[in-house]
């Protein structure tokens, strides 16, 4: 038991170090070169340390998640609507995981390093007869997410793609039905304009970046997975009613 506790402590030290390095290296692009604000942190104040799921729209492979890690650590240090100086990474909030595509997270040394910050890699399931991706998660990936949810917060992107207003996959709703987590919707804006989609480098300067945390969803866990999926898409403002008119037809 003592060896297990020591391994856990050592792993937490590694994770804090990764948060520190990634956080400091990305801070200028988020809060200095661009204009960043976040809202709704009052909805984070009394959350338990486990069985909380953050669902968000998705604009870049890495900077969406990295910015949320900034916010969680800043809020831990008492910040409310702006980051201020990044001293919060001296003791970051690390009880959070994020869901990411396996192919993305194994594509470069940077992404492999960032996995150590709490990444949970998932694969699409495939229909061998048609070679098409099915809407869902591999069962082993589902179990991985469920185990993490039992101990930490989880960030997930129901659409699984950075394409705006793409349809969501129902895997997130199925996990919600089974585990009944507190679900916090997040709406992000400006990231696709400010940053390159596949990295952490700045594409444009002076962009207004916003992250809005909404109040926890009131979910009927007996509803169908599709009904819950529709509720999630409305909450993160990615359903058809939020799409530009040209995309509604």
**Count of separate structural domains:** 1
Can you tell me the residue ranges where pLDDT is under 50 for at least 5 consecutive residues?
Answer: 1-8, 125-135
Q: Which CATH architecture is right? A: 3-Layer(aba) Sandwich
Q: Could you say what the CATH topology is called?
A: Glycerol-3-phosphate (1)-acyltransferase
Taken as a percent bin, the fraction of beta residues is 15-25%
Q: What structural class is derived from the secondary structure elements? A: alpha/beta
CATH class: Alpha Beta
Q: Please describe the biggest sheet, giving its number of strands, its sense, and whether it closes into a barrel.
A: 7 strands, mixed
Describe this protein's structure.
By secondary structure, the protein is an alpha/beta fold. The chain has one domain (2-247): Glycerol-3-phosphate (1)-acyltransferase (3-Layer(aba) Sandwich). The protein contains eight helices and nine strands. It has helices spanning 2-32, 63-76, 102-105, 109-115, 139-149, 171-179, 191-194, 225-235, and strands at residues 35-39, 52-56, 96-101, 119-122, 124-127, 132-137, 153-156, 182-189, 208-213. Strands 1-9-8-2-7-3-4 form a seven-stranded mixed beta sheet, with helices on both faces. Strand 5 and strand 6 (132-137) form a beta hairpin. Helix 1 (2-32) packs across helix 2 and helix 6 (171-179) crosses helix 8 (225-235). The longest helix has 31 residues, at 2-32.
């Amino acid at each position: 038991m003592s060896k297990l506790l020591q391994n856990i402590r050592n792993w937490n030290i590694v994770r804090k170090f990764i948060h520190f390095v990634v956080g400091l290296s990305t801070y200028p692009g988020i809060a200095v070169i661009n204009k960043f604000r976040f809202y709704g942190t009052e909805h984070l104040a009394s959350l338990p340390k486990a069985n909380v799921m953050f669902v968000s729209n998705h604009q870049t492979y890495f900077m969406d998640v990295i910015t949320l890690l900034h916010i969680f650590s800043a809020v831990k240090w008492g910040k409310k609507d702006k980051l201020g100086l990044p001293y919060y990474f001296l003791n970051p909030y690390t009880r959070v995981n994020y869901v990411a595509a396996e192919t993305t997270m194994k594509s470069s040394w940077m992404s492999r390093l960032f996995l150590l910050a709490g990444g949970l890699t998932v694969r699409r399931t495939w229909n061998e007869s048609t070679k098409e991706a099915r809407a869902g998660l591999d069962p082993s990936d589902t179990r991985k997410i469920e185990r993490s949810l039992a101990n930490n917060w989880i960030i997930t992107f129901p659409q699984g793609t950075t394409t705006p207003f793409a349809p969501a996959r129902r895997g997130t709703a199925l996990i919600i039905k089974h585990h009944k987590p507190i679900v916090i919707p997040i709406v992000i804006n400006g990231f696709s304009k400010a940053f390159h989609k596949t990295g952490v480098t700045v594409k444009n300067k002076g962009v207004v970046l916003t992250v809005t945390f909404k109040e926890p969803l009131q979910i009927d866990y007996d509803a169908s997975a599709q009904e819950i999926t529709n509720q999630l898409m409305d909450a993160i403002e990615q359903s058809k009613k939020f799409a530009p008119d040209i995309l509604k037809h």
